[in-house]
Design brief:
The structure holds two protein chains of two kinds. By secondary structure, chain A is an alpha/beta fold. Chain A contains 22 helices and 18 strands. In chain A, helix 2 packs across helix 3 and helix 20 crosses helix 21. Chain B is α/β, with parallel strands linked by helices. The chains are: A alpha/beta, B alpha/beta. Chains A and B meet through helix 8, helix 15, helix 19 and helix 21 of A and helix 10 and helix 11 of B.
Chain lengths: 485, 272
């Protein structure tokens, strides 16, 4: 007896159709899974057996072979439990085979037969839609996520329910679709007192999608500022939200009740993160932090403490907006169009830039610290700002401007930049030329200043880039002690 | 590369107690520039932002007034003095403590190239000689020897810059010291010099006066009120003036481009 269930395996973020075939033969009772299944997938044998028995269904006697086709595609994870169980049950005539063939399915089985969520349901559901399967049987908690793909989710809590549904004894239950808003309120800029220059840089970064490097002694609020960037970014457009959700879904990070991520994501990996953790990869080819920050913000706090290979690996996504993780078996693309925000002390001991402390770093130590940042990476930061220690006077002041009005300005500036980007007047051009002659400013540096000055003009709601806009942009270039090796 | 024999050395250098037997030169500068009035600017390698600003300002203003700025191509004060001089159309001379073919420290390769394009790099050591700790004091006697005036910007106790100053004093040359905070280790050396009777330096004009050179008329600052509030951070200026933060930053950047102010670790300082 033979039966088939359909599911999808993920290669990176791409769903590939997998036919789960179950074949029953006589002989000694046993269950074999073939078709390049990884460890988690092989362990499905035990879960499926217990799950079927717990659902008070009959585990077929005799020798059972489960084949995951195409055989050369690597199958990973526990999402194959449900299709394997359903194919087995169909092969042993416990549910109608033709009805099973109309559904895609995915989900992990608990030993008591309940269905557990797995990562990547959105991508699997998208695969189902492309394969013109209208329905996907999935764990109930993954319903809202599967629905985003435009297929009808059949959310089930237990294997027995799924079987009852396929037998036509049970309707697909209702589910709730989330609103795409973050569950927690983003941090508000009102908490930041003083730091006018830092706030200004943050607003510019948000408006122009510029990469931002904040330097300064410890405790001056660099990280505090950086964490408030997501709060002043505009919400994502629908297409972007789906992209982001797909990546987070594969990483198993979506909120079951509000799966759609309609806001700019924020990722802040610790500086001990490995290269694979940041750019993605590893044996299971998972998206890394850089991809999870797609369409959002990647904060590298204490930038100079990161391993240099991890930092250098970021140059490709900063340039191309995607990461290509190459493996012997082929390469996988993960989108990674993020905004990079870095914070760093000005020296390893942290005292530089603090008038009340004496720096004890040797020249070699300082050079080694700054060498972490190659020119190439430093060049990717459009805005470099040193945040000096705030004076007591500033800290006594009232709360700063709230995030909401700042975000409105950011949205308006982005609109202006998209419609007709402001052009430099001749006076502004002249200032830029003069600056290039007088300051150590490379070709790329000049282009960055030009870009930032456009953002400044757009934020000022100006039709043209005026000299004062260029002048302000010049103030955000990398300081010479960082720029000169 | 050119070689100066002892009798071809500039007179001031030939007059010291222990002049070098020969001096190797490279760079596009003419040898006659060694006959021009010269000032040595020396100081700590690990200098403070303040020291770096002062060294750069002195380098620029002295070279702008036609004085040759001599220093040792080291990190910190030396490098800043050279850079300041290169910002004008004046001359600056680097004296190496290693073979004439080496750029030491390697981080200053580009700086050495810029100096060589216009002025001179010199050493008493032939090509291939490695830098060694004991060669730097010997190099310092040449720096002091070339110049009628030596300026020490920042120096710790028992530092190389003080050795240069000692050589200068032994030869009866003028030594200026830039006063520093008495609490800072970087000021210990200069303040000790001042206590011993070195002349406190209050501006490039002091040096020019001792050389008998008329200081060029002060550049007219277009009465920018922000300049009078420096040194300050951008935020402090926003608070003091009530101007918008973007506006303040724009003005500061324009002052920077005009060479009137510059930023170090978030604090803007006046240069002129």
């Amino acid at each position: 007896m033979l039966a088939r269930a359909v599911t999808f395996a993920l290669v990176g973020l791409e769903p590939r159709r997998v036919e789960v075939e179950a074949h029953l033969q006589g002989g000694t009772p046993s269950l074999t899974i073939v078709g390049l299944a990884d460890r988690a997938c092989q362990e499905a044998r035990q879960r499926v057996r217990s799950g079927i028995l717990s659902a008070e269904l009959e585990f077929p006697g005799g020798h059972v072979t489960v084949n995951l086709a195409p055989a050369e595609l690597k199958k990973e994870g526990s999402g194959f439990d449900l299709p394997i169980a359903l194919a087995l049950l169909a092969a042993s005539h416990q549910l109608p085979r033709d009805r099973l063939a109309e559904h895609a399915s995915c989900g992990e089985l608990a030993l008591d037969g309940r269905l557990r969520r797995v990562g990547g349901v959105l991508a699997v559901a998208e695969g189902a839609r492309r394969a013109e399967l209208d329905r996907i049987i999935c764990p109930y908690e993954a319903c809202a996520e599967a629905a985003l793909a435009g297929v009808e989710p059949v959310g089930m809590r237990h294997l027995a329910d799924a079987v009852a549904y396929l037998r036509g004894e049970l309707e697909a239950p209702e589910y709730v679709v989330g609103n795409g808003k973050p569950r927690r309120r983003p941090l508000d800029l009102a908490d930041v007192r003083g730091q006018e220059r830092g706030r200004r840089a943050l607003e510019l970064a948000a408006a122009g999608r510029h990469n931002l490097l904040l330097g300064g002694p410890p405790g001056t609020g660099k990280t505090m500022l950086a964490r408030r960037l997501p709060g002043i970014l505009p919400p994502l457009e629908e297409e972007q939200a789906l992209e982001v959700t797909r990546i987070h879904s594969v990483a198993g990070l979506v909120d079951p009740d509000h799966p759609l991520i309609g806001y700019a994501p924020f990722r802040a990996p610790h500086h001990s993160a490995s290269t694979a953790a940041i750019v993605g990869g590893g044996p299971r080819l998972r998206p890394g932090e850089a991809s999870l920050a797609h369409r959002g913000v990647l904060l590298l706090d204490e930038l100079a403490e990161f391993q240099r290979p991890a930092l250098e690996a970021l140059r490709q996504p900063l340039e191309d907006g995607e990461l290509v993780v190459a493996r012997a078996a082929g390469s996988v693309r993960f989108p990674a169009r993020f905004q990079l925000v870095g914070t760093m002390n000005l020296c390893p001991c942290g005292a530089r830039g603090d008038p009340g402390a004496q720096c004890s770093c040797s020249a070699q130590r300082l050079a080694r610290y700054r060498d972490k940042l190659s020119r190439a990476l430093l060049d990717r930061f459009d805005l470099v700002v040193t945040i000096p220690r705030a004076r007591a006077l500033e800290l006594q002041g009232g709360p700063g401007e709230r995030s909401d009005p700042v975000r409105s300005r950011v949205v308006a500036a982005r609109l202006r930049l998209e419609e007709t980007a402001p052009k430099r007047t001749s006076a502004a051009d002249e200032l830029l030329t003069r600056a290039v002659e007088r300051l150590p400013l490379s070709g790329r540096g000049r282009a960055k200043v030009a870009g930032v000055s456009r953002t400044i003009a757009a934020l000022a709601d100006s039709d043209a880039v005026l000299p004062q806009h260029v002048a302000e942009a010049l103030a955000y270039r990398a300081p010479s002690e960082l720029a000169t090796p | 590369m050119r070689v100066l024999r002892r009798r071809e050395l500039p007179p001031l250098l030939r007059a010291i107690h222990d002049p070098p037997a020969r001096l190797y030169l490279r760079g596009n500068g003419d040898v006659t520039l060694l006959a021009e009035p010269a000032v040595a600017i020396v100081g700590a390698r690990a200098c403070s932002p303040y020291g770096a600003q002062v060294a750069r300002m002195l380098g620029r203003e002295l070279a702008g007034a036609g004085v040759v700025v001599v220093s040792g191509l080291a990190r910190g004060i030396d490098g800043e003095a050279h850079r300041g001089a290169l910002e004008t159309d004046g001359h600056t001379v680097a004296v190496l403590g290693c073979g004439i073919d080496r750029d030491y420290p390697a981080a200053h390769t580009m700086l050495a190239r810029s100096i060589g394009e216009r002025s001179l790099i010199m050493s008493e050591y032939e090509a291939g000689v490695e830098p060694a700790p004991w060669r730097f004091p010997a190099r310092n006697r040449i720096i002091a020897g070339l110049c009628a005036v030596t300026v020490v910007v920042e120096a710790r106790e028992r530092s190389g810059a003080l050795i240069t100053a000692d050589f200068a004093l032994e030869e009866g040359r003028e030594v200026f010291a830039v006063p520093g905070e008495i609490t800072s280790a970087l000021s210990k050396g200069v303040n000790a010099l001042l206590r011993l009777g070195a002349t406190p330096l209050t501006g490039a004009a002091d040096v020019l006066e001792s050389l008998g050179i008329q200081s060029p008329p002060n550049r007219t600052v277009e009465g920018n009120p922000l300049l009078d509030l420096l040194p300050a951070t951008a935020d402090e200026l926003v608070q003091k003036t009530g101007l918008g933060v973007g506006e303040v930053i724009a003005v500061l950047a324009e002052l920077d481009v005009a060479g009137l102010a510059s930023e170090g670790d978030g604090i803007y300082r006046r240069l002129a």
